Amino acid sequence: MQFETWTKALAELPIDCVAVGVHDDGELSAEARVLDLRCREKLSRLVKRGDFSAKTGETWLVTDLEGLRAERVLLVGLGAKGELTRKSWRRAVTASISAATRTRCASLGLALPRPATKALSDERLGRAVAELAGHTLYRVNDLKTGKKPRTPALTRVAVAVPAKAAQAVKKGFAQGSALAAGSALMRNLANLPGNVCTPTYLGKTAEGLARTHKSLKVKVLGLPEIKREKMGCFLAVTQGSEEPPRFIVIEHRHPKAKNAPVVLVGKGITFDTGGISLKDPPTMDEMKFDMSGAACVIGTMNAVGELNLPLNVIGIVASCENMPDGRAIKPGDIVTSAQGLTVEILNTDAEGRLILCDALNYARRFKPEVVIDMATLTGAIVVALGTHHTGVFANNDALAKELVDCGLAADDRAWHMPLTEEYGEQLKSNFADMANVAGRDGGSITAAAFLGKFTKDLNWAHMDIAGTAYQGGAAKGSTGRPSALLLEYLLRRAATR
Ligand code: BES
Ligand code: MN
Ligand code: ZN
Description:
About 35% of the residues lie in helices and about 20% in strands. It contains 15 helices and 19 strands. The protein has helices at about 30-40, 40-50, 85-100, 120-135, 165-190, 200-210, 225-230, 230-240, 290-305, 350-365, 380-385, 395-410, 420-425, 445-450, 485-495, and strands spanning about 1-5, 15-20, 60-65, 70-75, 105-110, 155-160, 215-220, 245-250, 260-270, 315-320, 335, 340-345, 370-375, 390-395, 415, 435, 460-465, 470, 475-480. The site of zinc ion (ZN) has 5 residues, from strand 9.
């Protein structure tokens, strides 16, 4: 998709279709009024007739208007006047792009009113348009053999902006395009079934990134190397699977970056049966999404490479399956983590924290400024927060607050969860340094507290994305979250040094 700005008269915009806003009381927005005057008030007459309700996100395609360069005008509902929020603006942009994809239009002009700069800066506006275009045009990578639906003709989006905003908007386009590509990569990986998207497949995908982006170096460890690293907890989870594990390290180094690296860590369980503590059948298929954290790290590293951010960023993925088997771990087994702490595995279904504790320990060798892990770690976070907010935990409140702020700014929200000592105390074991579970109460917090025992000397945050990374039910599929939050965080760091 190509994005451009248009800073001249709207009626002169050479485009297949131009989208303008209408309020639900029938009042045309300023841009719509400009076009209306050029085409002998055909638009206002049409709206007055009452066919178009102009509720937020509704659209109406008008063709054959004289006096305009554009062949078509798309009326887009904005809802009540004076209530244009960033949220309703995003809905209007999405609706415009979505309506355009249902036509033969190859190019779309966006001339919608925008929320105040305070709510949406010029740069963010550009970023959001490219992000929303990517999201709206994304088609699930299914394995259906029937005829594929027609691919949309749309290849060009032009946004009408004042000349003084053009440069910042263009900068935003680049960010949004990188975000869209990263998020689509995440979604493609997560949507693939467990028999296709194996740890080996994730490793190969990561190696592919190093071929496309010069700044990225990729190292993939197999079983012998993982054994050499003494990652006893990771090895325990993988020991019940035929499918070999992979430990993936993606490094982005920028010559101008002086900062210690930001390390991103992703949980990459390509299928979670629960192991001997087997899960219930009904929605077990959704456990193919249990590598969403890993997919987000890979997608984000792709975006970082594409933008060549002036930062040092390292992505780490621990990937294996969690299977029941004659060689699988059993409840009560005690294993030794790479850090030397012993863990009593009381529930084999709490496997995410086991692979992550060894990955977090590995992160330490990079002397990182900050470590952020992402994991579909607990069903409990879905009970606590539902599917709207990612759960953020940190051993540093300022870092948690920063991530929550980034989520707000990027429209990819997160909520700061508590992480005080008491939760860690619930993980006491009679036989080892700690147990891997602590009962039902506060399940997402005790899971985070388990990770916290391995990150005491790090500046660390954990994002539990079990509720946000994918949708179940009829709309089953990966959402691409929290790619937008994470890129916002990295862009902010890149801007302040
Ligand atoms: N991958 C699951 C968490 C999960 C559950 C993600 C539901 C998305 C939806 C994780 O490995 C797991 O099984 N966690 C257990 C922990 C429990 C045994 C303490 C859980 O949440 O039930
Ligand atoms: Mn599990
Ligand atoms: Zn899991």
